[in-house]
Each structure stands twice: as structure tokens, then as C-alpha cells.
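Homework help board

Subject: predicted structure for assignment chain

Our instructor gave us this sequence and asked us to write out the predicted structure in C-alpha cell form, then describe one feature. I got the C-alpha cells but I'm not sure how to describe them. Can anyone check?
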Amino acid sequence: MKELLLYVAKQLVDDPEAVTVTEREDGESTVLELHVAPEDMGKVIGRQGRIAKEIRTIIKAVSQRDGKRVTVDIVD
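My C-alpha cell output:
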């Protein structure tokens, strides 16, 4: 999941070197925290949060296929 999120985020931003993903366990689920450069935050979130929603949908679909529960948080 982490690699997929990194790949998708790097394709969206102007500064792919600033993209990092941290993974932490939160009970039965895994939380992926996406960090991007401040000037790229709008590109990852999108208008009215559409891109962020689609990123979360992709990760959720792939994680359910593997029988896991993964959520994505976009962190400042």
C-alpha cells in the first residue's frame, strides 16, 4: 500500500522528492500519512477534495482485496 500511495502522489506533485509516506498501526487498521511540500498540497487535495477522495478510494479498494483495513491521512 505504501508504495502505491507514494507512486500516485509523486505523479501528482511538482516536487516528488518531498513526498513521504509514514505507516502506523492503529488498532486493527493501518494509517498511511502522506506528507507533501506545502506548495503541492492543493494538487494532492484537488478541488473540493476530489483528488484526495479518489486516492483514498484506490487505497481502500486495494487494501480490501488483500483483506486489510488501510486509511490515508494527508498531513501538513
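Reply (TA_rk): Your C-alpha cells look well-formed. For the description, you could write something like this. The CA atoms of residues 24 and 31 lie 5 Å apart. That's the kind of observation they're looking for.
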